Amino acid sequence: MDDRHQQGENIEVWEDLVNIKDLLLSIVICTISTLGGYLIAPNEPPKPLIFGLVGAVVGFIITSVVIKPKRRFRYMDEEED
Known about the structure:
The protein is mostly helical. The chain has a domain at about 20-60. It is built from 3 helices and 2 strands, in the order H-E-E-H-H. The chain has a two-stranded antiparallel ribbon. Strand 1 and strand 2 (about 15-20) form a beta hairpin. The chain is elongated and about 65 Å long. About 5% of the residues are buried. Keywords: Membrane, Transmembrane, Transmembrane helix. It comes from Virgibacillus salarius. This is Heme ABC transporter.
């Protein structure tokens, strides 16, 4: 995939390029896991918050496993004169 085509699929978020499809997929996964945790929680006051936060962490873990980074680092060794 050439750079021009790849730039068309990316948007800039917080001074970093992000693939639109991966961003939307991660938002959907985190939203579903967070709301799922919140909705299955018992109706006692602190539990919906805790279940929702655990759901958000689970969603983050799932997205970090499913979506791999596409960044390439190149290390160039500068020779001393």
